[in-house]
């Protein structure tokens, strides 16, 4: 499935060459090695402060790392453009701040105005600072701003919450003293080497016209992305405005995306309407969502009474949820105890064991799922509930933890999968993805099977890292659900997130699962090369965790990827040999062997070793049948087997395999495009077997399904129409063939565009129909279009170009221009010789043209050679019959071929 | 003229004051560094390249040779670029290299690279598409496909986790492809198309995309 990506080829081709660097090289030679090095300039002074190094450009001015010689300490000096009146107000604010004393708050030390006499024009120009303004001196904090810190490395949820909690304490301290920050944002928080946050720039925004402010509303001060809706409206800010900004930062930090999905201009409206980006909310742990929603309420009076109250609510929600839904034995026992508390002890203590379900599934949520899936969702809920109560009873009866632990963990995983699926279903997932997802819901009953106890413990049992691990597992579930639903980008995004989180937890089983999922997601998006190191890492961690089952699954995937995607056949087959032995050690050896044989078969198919692939694919299928495996792996297996048989010209067996693939799709998801694909493959074999009526019926069904799922003019409908046009041609129905090819061209133009090489095929096929209809000018035109299309897409020297050349030779022959025909035929032969494979049909046609051009004494021999070539082409065809008629008309002998008789019976 | 010492030895010698070692080192890597800046801020490429080599000289002690010198140098170039953008970009916009293109961050259209670069109209379109991508995506693609860096090396230059770099690279490619398709209405040639039953060209069998169960 991997193919050289055209985008990458073009990108590589556009690489500027080294000669373009000549000018830069000259510059460097002069600057670095030519002229003598210039003396370092003395650092400028401002008041008593020395400005050592220019830092970033903040929201409102330029920050310097400075030095205060009087107190012998490093300071931050901020230069801000401000009027004298503003400077006065700022000084008042600074005095109020002097009262602040909190580890998370950086107060202002000193403040003053400066003018052109202090800042020379030279300095102003070099550092781009205003020549008149205010300087604000603060404690120097060495560290990263909050946004840079968050980007520096993946930060687990608990670490982020710890930092935000410390920030909240600082804000609370400030608020309790009657002050407001007014411009809280990630860049106003500096995280030091000990991960301690320090909030800077308190209250400054209120007095200084910041360049951040949207010019359209001149009164607005602050940073639009983070400010509260009342600030957008120009109303005064209070502590609840800071709470709002704080919540925006927290949400964005946890979600890794913006809280409001809009341009700066749309922000005020979105905030006033409370339109938080649902995807951002969805990316945040569920337990935090309601607190964030409340803190982001458009009306200040609906928010929490304080930042402290907000953080308390978050802490509460997290405790509750973690205790109930996840967790292993501790939670099981705790749940039983909690349930026993409000009810009389005579009541079955397991009656509420299924309580976690009701956090995920409620009748209201069910209503939001598409009606046709509601019953299946409800059934899952009922079955899960029953299984969970059963596990609780088993625990009470046996009293042994070990027996029930596997079951409970397995059910937890199933619920977690269900939760991720519900999120997708509720969001209005379209068909056929929703059907596929519902079909793939896990079976709760399987958790009661003895081997459920072997489920790897994805969650660590000790407390540190527990919360992060939960996040990682939730992301893994979302990744898996998205993958099943065919949303490969989301699968990749969530897998990446899970992997980053898992790296911070010392728990090999989780790391193995996350790396495995990431590798898989990369492979599915055609990034096989990038996937490999993650497969290797996953394997290492799986071995470390002693999880042989996963290790073997990883290696099985690697066989498929190395062989079928990366063309590293020998490595793939070597790994497969090692795996044969390992399969004996896993819980389900037969399933393991099926996977290995399957991927070995694919590898051999990719290498072109069709004979070798066949036994592997057949054995994989036999294993699957013995297992009663009816999953997508089965469908893929029979389909691959069909390809193998068809390439070996074992058409009856190919037919049987494709029929099995079709049955599977029709039974599981008749509306899924996979069904149409299976019909198309089936029709190709029927056509080759000469069963033209059946082939036609299958093509038409495929067309109908593709039109229903992919639209009237998709690439797939174009493909089926092309195939159908070919079939009509073989049957001699030229008008139907022409119609089909013209519709095919229309569909391809609308879907893939005029320059796609798909077009060339239909132009060639159309040209050949037009010859038979005597429309020779139009035929010539079609072949020229095919030539141009392929020459543009594939280059002038591509063997495919033999086709239009041969078509034009045939046209010339039909027009009574043998000289031109001979010239074009020679061209076609040269081009065809550039290809590696032999195309029997093309060869037969070339020989047919040759026979028509031959001298009379050679004509019969040439015609007979052409006929033999035609007999080597499977299936009857109009061209072959025409050639036979041509030979009979000249009185040449036409021996019949036994193979032909069998095929046309 | 040719100096057979490896990059690390040259760097050490340069740091110890041997100018010719510096000249050799610069000659070896100037094209890479220049290319790094050129399709972003063509007019400042010489200046930024200079800052990069100076910073590299200053930090020479810290080069431990764990990664290749070129990767390390590109990491410095990357930091120089961010510093430059931070100083240049208008304050109304947060510096966000993951979302914003060079044009947005500079607050002006970047000067286009010289015509000599664009040997072909298509190259010109491609360079423009690259510049319209968020800066981080642009860098990811250029490092991977122009400089041939491995994914781990790209991750090191951008100070990203490897998994993050890999998936962002994928997204960057997809985004670039979309942009090029919009512009040229062209799609890549599929290799799955296979001749079948002779002239029935384009009769394509389809392989289901599912590989196997995870």
Q: Could you explain the architecture of this structure?
A:
The complex is a heterodimer of chains A (905) and B (214). Chain A is mostly helical and 905 residues long. Among the domains of chain A are: 53-141, Phosphorylase Kinase, domain 1, CATH 3.30.200; 146-323, Transferase(Phosphotransferase), domain 1, CATH 1.10.510; 350-455, no CATH class; 845-905. Helix content of chain A is 63%, strand content 6%. Chain A has 40 helices and 9 strands. In chain A, the strands form 2 sheets. Chain A has a 6-stranded antiparallel sheet, covered by helices on one side. In chain A, strands 7-8-9 form a 3-stranded antiparallel sheet. Chain B is 57% helix and 0% strand. Chain B has a single domain (7-184), classed as Rna Polymerase Sigma Factor, Chain: A, CATH 1.10.1740. The interface between A and B is large, with 127 and 86 residues.
Indicate the proportion of strand residues of chain B. Answer: under 5%
Report the strand count of chain B: 0
The CA-CA distance between the termini of chain A, in Å, is 37 Å
Looking at CATH, which topology of chain B would you report?
Rna Polymerase Sigma Factor, Chain: A
Question: In terms of per-residue confidence, which ranges of chain A show pLDDT below 50 for 5 or more consecutive residues?
Answer: 35-41, 209-220, 321-347, 452-456, 898-905
Give the C-level CATH assignment of chain B: Mainly Alpha
- What is the number of helices of chain A? 40
Task: Give a brief description.
The complex is a heterodimer of chains A (905) and B (214). Chain A has a six-stranded antiparallel β-sheet with strand order 1-2-3-4-6-5, with helices on one face. In chain A, strands 7-8-9 form a three-stranded antiparallel β-sheet.
């Amino acid at each position: 499935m991997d193919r050289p990506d055209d985008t990458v080829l073009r990108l590589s081709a556009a690489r500027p060459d080294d000669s373009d660097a000549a000018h830069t090289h000259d510059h460097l030679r002069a600057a670095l090695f030519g002229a003598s090095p210039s003396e370092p300039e003395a650092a400028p002074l401002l008041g008593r402060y020395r400005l050592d190094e220019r830092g970033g450009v903040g929201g409102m001015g330029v920050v310097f790392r400075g030095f205060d010689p009087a107190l012998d300490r490093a300071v931050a000096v901020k230069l801000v453009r401000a009027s004298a009146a503003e400077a006065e107000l700022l000084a008042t604010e600074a005095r109020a701040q002097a009262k602040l004393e909190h580890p998370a708050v950086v107060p202002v030390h000193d403040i003053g105005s400066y003018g052109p006499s202090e800042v020379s024009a030279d300095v102003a120009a070099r550092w781009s600072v205003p020549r008149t303004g205010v300087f604000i001196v603060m404690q120097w904090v060495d560290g990263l701003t909050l946004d840079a810190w968050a980007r520096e490395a993946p930060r687990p949820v608990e670490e982020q919450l710890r930092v935000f909690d410390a920030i909240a304490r600082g804000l609370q301290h400030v608020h309790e003293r009657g002050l407001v920050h007014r411009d809280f944002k990630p860049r106003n928080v500096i995280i030091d080497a000990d991960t301690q946050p320090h909030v800077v720039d308190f209250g400054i925004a209120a007095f200084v016209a910041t360049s951040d402010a949207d010019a359209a509303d001149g009164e607005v001060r602050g940073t639009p992305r983070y400010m509260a809706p009342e600030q957008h409206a120009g109303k005064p800010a209070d502590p609840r405005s800071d709470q709002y900004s704080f919540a925006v930062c927290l949400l964005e930090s946890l979600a890794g995306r913006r809280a409001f999905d809009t341009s700066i201009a749309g922000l005020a409206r979105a905030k006033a309407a409370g339109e938080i980006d649902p995807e951002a909310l969805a990316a945040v742990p569920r337990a935090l969502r309601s607190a964030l929603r409340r803190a982001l309420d458009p009306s200040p009076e609906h928010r929490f009474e304080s930042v402290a109250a907000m953080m308390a609510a978050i802490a509460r929600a997290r405790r509750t949820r973690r205790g109930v839904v996840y967790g292993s034995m501790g939670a099981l026992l705790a749940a039983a105890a909690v349930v026993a508390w409000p009810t009389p002890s005579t009541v079955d203590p397991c009656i509420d064991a299924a309580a976690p379900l009701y956090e995920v599934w409620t009748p209201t949520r069910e209503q939001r799922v598409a009606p046709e899936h509601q019953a299946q969702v409800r059934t899952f809920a009922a079955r899960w509930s029953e299984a969970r109560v059963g596990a609780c009873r088993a625990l009470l009866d046996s009293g042994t933890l070990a027996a029930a632990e596997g079951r409970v963990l397995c059910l937890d995983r199933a619920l977690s999968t269900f939760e991720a699926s519900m999120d997708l279903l509720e969001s209005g997932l379209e068909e056929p993805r929703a059907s596929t997802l519902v079909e793939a819901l896990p079976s709760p009953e399987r958790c009661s099977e003895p081997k459920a106890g072997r489920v790897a413990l994805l969650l660590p049992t000790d407390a540190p890292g527990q919360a992060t691990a939960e996040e990682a597992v939730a992301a893994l579930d979302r990744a898996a659900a998205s993958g099943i639903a065919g949303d490969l980008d989301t699968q990749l995004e969530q897998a990446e997130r899970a992997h980053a989180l898992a790296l911070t937890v010392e728990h090999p089983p989780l790391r193995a699962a996350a790396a495995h999922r990431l590798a898989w997601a990369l492979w599915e998006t055609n990034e096989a090369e990038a996937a490999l190191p993650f497969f290797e890492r996953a394997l290492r961690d799986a071995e470390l965790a002693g999880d042989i089952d996963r290790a073997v699954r990883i290696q099985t995937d690697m066989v498929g990827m190395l062989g079928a995607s990366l063309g590293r056949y020998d490595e793939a087959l070597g790994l497969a040999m090692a795996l044969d032995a390992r399969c004996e050690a896993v819980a389900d050896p037969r399933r393991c062997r099926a996977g290995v044989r399957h991927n070995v078969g694919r590898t051999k198919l990719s290498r072109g070793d069709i004979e070798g692939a066949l036994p592997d694919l057949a054995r994989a299928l036999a294993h699957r049948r013995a297992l009663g495996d009816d999953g997508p792996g089965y469908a893929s297996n029979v389909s691959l087997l069909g390809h193998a048989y068809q390439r070996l010209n074992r058409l009856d067996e190919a037919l049987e395999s494709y029929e099995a693939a079709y049955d599977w799709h029709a039974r599981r998801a008749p509306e899924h495009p996979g069904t149409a694909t299976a019909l198309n493959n089936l029709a190709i074999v029927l056509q080759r077997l000469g069963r033209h009526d059946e082939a036609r019926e299958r093509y038409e069904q495929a067309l109908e399904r593709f039109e229903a799922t992919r639209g009237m003019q998709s690439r797939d409908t174009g493909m089926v129409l092309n195939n159908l046009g070919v079939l009509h041609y073989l049957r001699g129905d030229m008008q139907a063939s022409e119609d089909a090819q013209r519709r095919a061209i229309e569909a391809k133009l609308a879907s893939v565009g005029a320059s796609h090489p798909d077009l060339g095929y239909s132009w060639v096929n159309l040209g050949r129909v037009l010859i038979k209809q005597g429309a020779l000018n139009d035929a010539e035109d079609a072949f020229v279009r095919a030539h141009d299309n392929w020459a543009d897409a594939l280059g002038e020297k591509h063997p495919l170009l033999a086709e239009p050349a041969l078509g034009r030779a045939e046209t010339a022959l039909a027009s009574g221009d043998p000289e031109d025909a001979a010239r074009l035929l020679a061209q076609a032969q040269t081009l065809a010789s550039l290809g590696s494979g032999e195309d029997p049909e093309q060869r037969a046609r070339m020989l047919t043209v040759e026979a028509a051009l031959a001298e009379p004494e050679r004509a019969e021999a040439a015609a007979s050679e052409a006929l033999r070539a035609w007999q080597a082409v499977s299936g009857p065809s109009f061209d072959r019959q025409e050639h036979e008629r041509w030979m009979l008309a000249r009185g040449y002998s036409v021996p019949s071929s036994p193979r032909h008789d069998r095929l046309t019976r | 003229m040719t100096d057979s010492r490896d990059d690390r030895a040259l760097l050490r010698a340069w740091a110890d004051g041997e100018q010719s070692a510096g000249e050799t080192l610069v000659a070896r890597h100037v094209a890479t560094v220049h290319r790094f800046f050129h399709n972003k801020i063509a007019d400042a490429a010489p200046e930024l390249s200079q800052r990069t080599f100076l910073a590299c000289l200053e930090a020479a002690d810290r080069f431990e040779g764990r990664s290749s010198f070129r990767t390390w140098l590109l990491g410095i170039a990357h930091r120089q670029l961010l510093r430059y953008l931070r100083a240049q970009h208008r304050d109304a916009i947060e510096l966000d290299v993951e979302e914003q293109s060079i044009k947005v961050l500079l607050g002006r259209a970047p000067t286009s690279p010289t015509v000599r670069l664009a040997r072909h109209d298509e190259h010109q379109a491609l360079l423009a598409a690259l510049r319209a991508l968020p800066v981080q995506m642009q860098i990811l693609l250029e490092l991977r496909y122009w400089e041939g860096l491995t994914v781990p090396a790209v991750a090191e230059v951008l100070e990203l986790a490897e998994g993050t770099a890999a998936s962002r690279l994928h997204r960057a490619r997809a985004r670039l492809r979309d942009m090029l398709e919009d512009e040229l209405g062209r799609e890549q040639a599929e290799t799955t198309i296979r001749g079948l039953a002779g002239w029935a060209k384009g009769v394509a069998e389809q392989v289901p995309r599912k590989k196997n169960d995870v």
